[in-house]
């Protein structure tokens, strides 16, 4: 899959360095690869006058997508796994919306931060994914699972994306290229549990490279509590990157100053982070920032540490935030029975799910 690691300009350099071929062939190869998901160049019009070069490229590069190992479905929500590492499968979730598909992609195998409500964190961090492995998740959804209306990408799968920022942004560069998949930055969301070095580096890149459109990405902060002691307990990352420094990093970022730039994810843990005192601290943390709030009812995993909130508890919190003037929506769980909902990736799927193994 080495071709999937290359930005357009890097593919141009590769073809010239190895084959002494110019950008005409880069354009043809890049467009073909991302419009078909394969490297069968025999029928590609741009290569019809040079079938020998097409054959050489296919032999040298030997491209193929990894086979889908397992598929789990709940209704029209699909979780699929790819084998990039013998220690742990990479999980992605394809979610159909009304007019398009959203794909939840993983940026790491496992995660080091061990949030108490997250299955992935209980696995520990195995390794970062390379851009080619992230792009492969996208192409698999598009061409092997038939998501021809794929529009939104959310880096909310396994791992902490800002801890693997170089490969994540390389992926953004590749998939947002209009000659390829053409998924604009405004349809891509990066989630973070509060990785301050990553937030600061992303902010720097937004300032220094405005043409890359990183400032048009959405940044989603998994906050879940603005009380230091509570957040220490449920999100150990807070001990490394405390709330006061986190807020300072956000305030210095352009994402907190524009509409739709910064989303705050708040998982409802009944009796833990939904009391009046907790909400007061939450709203104090948000002061000075342009934000939208996503409420996420807790999704119990394989070893539940909290209970799932009742609908009236969700509604009460939603009403409280709306009364105080915040834009707020509830993100309803999809794929919970097949361990595909928020916080559930990385563990065995219940036996009663619909399962199909791909050979």
Task: Give a quick summary of the entry.
With 359 residues, the protein is α/β, with parallel strands linked by helices. It contains eleven helices and 13 strands. The strands form two sheets. An eleven-stranded mixed sheet has the order 12-11-10-9-8-7-4-3-2-1-13, covered by helices on one side. Strands 5-6 form a two-stranded antiparallel ribbon.
Keyphrases for this structure?
11 helices, 359 residues, single chain, alpha/beta, eleven-stranded mixed sheet, disordered C terminus
Descriptive notes:
There is one protein chain. With 359 residues, the chain is of the alpha/beta class. Helices cover 33% and strands 19% of the residues. It is built from eleven helices and 13 strands. The strands form two sheets. The chain has an eleven-stranded mixed beta sheet with strand order 12-11-10-9-8-7-4-3-2-1-13, with helices on one face. Strands 5-6 form a two-stranded antiparallel ribbon. Strand 11 (292-297), helix 11 (311-323) and strand 12 (328-330) form a beta-alpha-beta unit.
